[in-house]
């Protein structure tokens, strides 16, 4: 019911109107939100990432406390001053608050997809902008397995060289040419 309420507040319609089906049990969950698999009325399978209620307020409160502590630490500690602890916390605050804006994440998906369009083996899911907001991100669903879950026998049968080569070239392009890189390269991504 909480997920339904957030979706309706953000998108303006009920989940049952937006999707032909919506898995109530999340397929993934993290500190900021959770991801549900859904099917659009067109038949397209999507992932719907919904932010936890009140998470922004909790982040801001915690970050405000860290800002106060870091400022005081620099007043009393040479080490804190020398390492610029307060500036580090300010940068952390800036980056963490950006993480809470799924609108920015949707735009980043579009930018990354465009930047990597010439790579045949790399796929960036497109956001579904009509069903996305600052607290809801709907995107193409990608079926797959974490690379760490591929069995050793299957790895022996597969030629990963073309994929690895393209992944390395893709990351080099992101960093050196585009100046815009995917910053969460864990095995699930």
Instruction: Name the structural class.
Output: alpha+beta
Q: How would a crystallographer describe the biggest sheet?
A: 5 strands, antiparallel
Number of strands: 5
State the end-to-end CA separation: 29 Å
Order of helices and strands: HHEEEEHHHHEHH
Low-confidence stretches: none
Whole-number average pLDDT?
91
The general outline is: globular
Radius of gyration: 20 Å
Relative strand content: 5-15%
Can you offer a commentary on this structure?
This protein is of the alpha+beta class. The protein is 50% helix and 14% strand. It contains eight helices and five strands. Strands 1, 2, 3, 4 and 5 form a five-stranded antiparallel beta sheet that branches. Strand 2 (28-29) and strand 3 (33-40) form a beta hairpin. Helix 3 runs antiparallel to helix 5. The protein is globular, with a radius of gyration of 20 Å. The two termini are 29 Å apart. The relative contact order is 0.12.
Write the layout of secondary structure elements.
Blueprint: H1 2-11, H2 15-18, E1 19-22, E2 28-29, E3 33-40, E4 45-51, H3 55-76, H4 78-83, H5 85-99, H6 102-115, E5 136-140, H7 152-157, H8 161-178
Antiparallel strand pairs: 1-3, 2-3, 3-4, 4-5
Could you name the key traits of this structure?
alpha+beta, 50% helix, single chain, globular, 189 residues, 8 helices
Quickly describe the structure.
The chain is of the alpha+beta class. The chain has helices at residues 2-11, 15-18, 55-76, 78-83, 85-99, 102-115, 152-157, 161-178, and strands at residues 19-22, 28-29, 33-40, 45-51, 136-140. Strands 1, 2, 3, 4 and 5 form a 5-stranded antiparallel sheet that branches.
């Amino acid at each position: 019911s909480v997920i339904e309420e957030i979706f309706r507040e953000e998108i303006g319609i009920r989940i049952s109107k937006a999707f032909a089906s919506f898995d109530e049990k999340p397929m993934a969950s993290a500190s900021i939100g959770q991801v549900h698999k859904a099917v659009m009325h067109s038949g397209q399978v999507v992932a719907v990432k919904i932010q936890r209620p009140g998470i922004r307020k909790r982040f801001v409160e915690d970050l405000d406390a860290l800002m106060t502590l870091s400022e005081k630490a620099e007043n009393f500690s040479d080490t804190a001053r020398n390492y610029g602890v307060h500036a580090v916390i300010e940068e952390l605050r800036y980056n963490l608050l950006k993480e809470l804006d799924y609108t920015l994440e949707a735009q980043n998906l579009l930018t990354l997809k465009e930047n990597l369009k010439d790579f045949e083996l790399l796929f960036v899911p497109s956001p579904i902008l009509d069903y996305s907001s600052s607290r809801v991100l709907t995107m193409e669903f990608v079926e797959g397995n974490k690379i760490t879950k591929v069995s050793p026998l299957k790895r022996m049968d597969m030629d990963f060289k073309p994929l690895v080569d393209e992944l390395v070239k893709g990351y080099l392009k992101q960093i050196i040419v585009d100046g815009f890189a995917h910053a969460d390269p864990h095995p699930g991504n």
